[in-house]
Specification:
Two copies of one chain form a homodimer. The first copy, chain A, is of the alpha+beta class and 353 residues long. Chain A contains seven helices and 18 strands. Helices cover 24% and strands 29% of the residues of chain A. In chain A, a hairpin with a 3-residue loop joins strand 15 and strand 16. Strand 4 of chain A pairs antiparallel with strand 4 of chain B, so a sheet runs across the interface.
Chain lengths: 353, 353
């Protein structure tokens, strides 16, 4: 094929949208009319196809089932009051997608396939992006190895796909966390910084143990000492001690979240002292005891900004104070104002479809 | 369904075996006539189906593509001179499969499904097990999450499958390895001990770097210090210093290989002093310098026993001596004698189909 990567579009005969009950959605269960698919074979990306969302046929020997080369991104499209649709920092997701691809020995996806494909797909299904508080279209670009065969080696064939699911603001209930002291999410020199499917599978069992104890999530700590906070698997973590905000520096164990980077920038814009530095569990426990621990919150594309109500570390339990003007709520409002085109976009984060 | 898990068999109309060129097989590319499939849904295993090997249909939102819950086992069936077919320590694989399942928050597979299903499947396709030096049928039981949906949580549905591929003895060429000093395979408190698909995906990029330098594999070291040997991803590692044999103790980072355990037992049977203990890279480099480092070899189901010809660690390179009567060749012959029913099976490792 040529390098222009022409996009072939095959539209659905009849949209599912009229039959979709937008008031009763389960997160990630309903998909829009179309999806994007592009195959990497013989060392290059083949034609880009946008076609009706539907099943794919794979052999049981398909390498992704056996050796787990699978990466993804989570993004959202937002609609403003006038009906215009925007992506939020999509270049950041594309760059991280390719960083994940490299670490998992998968081919990088060129910008014209990822970005032009995404824009065309969102434009085609733009009626699925609803306007309203907390509403968005969740975008899921992902790549899987698709060669058939069980030899333990990188695949010679891959599929890049984008699927999209209407999302809503929902009250998740209070979130309390266990700070990990036994299990780990990532190793130094490993793949923790990549959005690799296997990282999530590895977190489910310890997370289930936390749920059984009445907690909703795990904040991971470093595997070597379990003394320093890392992230929460689907969220980066911010800690407010006194009036300062801290988050762990990103490294090869910690995902460099797009929402994380936005929170850091917005905190600076609001005159909040914010630092990327190691945060020890001991420091948090001491700050809890002397009353200087004001807030802990998570940040992520799906979760947006989620205040943590309480935590447990070994035998130490703590309930965070309820603040009238928390950094979490202030920054969440500021983020939504940018995403929904209600505020000036001084960092150039919005991309209009 | 009832607890008896009746196995439903749908045979192929015409076998592919006559069209299969057994003299020109690529490892893991050719599959037998039948496969086994069993779905876990609504909290229980549904009916067990043995049916023609062929593609399955899955939605692009299938959770295995996004969150990587996928585990497997590697096993082999052997044929003896009289045409009888044997499995090798299959109970060990079943138990490890369920240990992997537990760590990945997946349902355990009952013995009657795994073992009876496997035996029926091998019996049905027993003509695909060829008799001859190094020939075997490679068995691949695996499980994937199969719920549709992109919410980051354990799947509510799983597929357990077994596929089988005729395998042969092949000369892999000399194997030289890089001992890792930067990248890691597994974290303390992580999933390194499980046969999780994501562990393999994580190893491909560093392994590709080794290949680019002219080496074939990586021997992983501990992520915390990179000072102690772990395993080689598809093989456990044995080191012979003087007349003693050492292998790293299994822990939550290192797979407890069935071939590894067999090698340890056979070494004891042969009066070889064998120890499971930590082996530092420094110890190996010192032993190389003073000449006491006699052998390094890998052990695994697919690889059997593979002598390592040389290694590199940082700027230190070493070529192992060529021994006339190496432990590797002695133990490999002993292992094959048991597997092919040419020697007494005093530990009860063979299971006749």
């Amino acid at each position: 094929m040529t390098n222009t990567h022409a996009i072939v579009i095959d539209k659905v005969k009849e949209s599912k949208i009229a039959k979709t009950d937008f008031d009763n959605l389960t997160f990630g269960k309903t998909f829009t009319d179309h999806m994007l698919e592009c195959t990497w074979r013989d060392g290059e990306w083949q034609s880009v196809e946008i076609k009706p969302y539907g099943p794919i046929e794979v052999e049981p020997s398909c390498k992704v089932f056996h050796y787990g080369q699978a990466i993804f991104e989570g993004m959202k499209a937002f609609k403003d009051a006038t009906g215009d649709v925007f992506l939020f920092r999509p270049e950041d997701n594309w760059q991280r997608f390719n960083a994940s691809a490299k670490r998992l020995a998968m081919p990088e996806v060129p910008e014209e396939i990822f970005m032009e494909g995404l824009k065309k797909l969102v434009a085609l299904d733009k009626d699925w992006v609803r306007y309203g508080e907390g509403l968005s279209l969740y975008l899921r670009p992902f790549m899987i190895s698709s060669e058939n065969g069980v030899a333990a080696a990188p695949s010679t064939e891959y599929k890049f796909m984008i699927i999209m699911s209407p999302a809503f603001a929902y009250y998740k209930g209070d979130v309390r966390v266990i700070i990990a002291s036994e299990f780990s999410r990532a190793a130094d020199g490993g793949v923790g910084y990549a959005k690799a499917a296997g990282n999530y599978a590895a977190s489910f069992y310890p997370n289930n143990l936390a749920i059984q104890e009445g907690y909703q999530q795990v904040i991971w700590t470093d595997a070597a000492s379990h003394e320093y906070l890392e992230e929460a698997g689907t969220m980066n973590i911010f800690v407010r001690i006194g009036d300062s905000l801290f988050t762990a520096p990103h490294n090869d164990r910690i995902l460099n979240g797009v929402t994380r980077r936005s929170v850091i920038q917005m905190a600076k814009d609001h005159g909040i002292h914010v630092e990327e530095r190691r945060i020890s569990v001991n420091e948090i426990r001491e700050a809890a005891k002397d009353g200087s621990l004001k807030e802990i919150f998570g940040s992520g594309t799906a979760a947006v900004i989620v205040p943590i109500k309480g935590f447990k570390h070994k035998d130490f339990k703590y309930e965070l104070p309820q603040l009238d003007d928390s950094y979490a709520s202030r920054l969440k409002e500021a983020l939504k104002d940018i995403q929904y085109n209600r505020a000036e976009d001084k960092h150039g984060w919005r991309v209009k479809i």
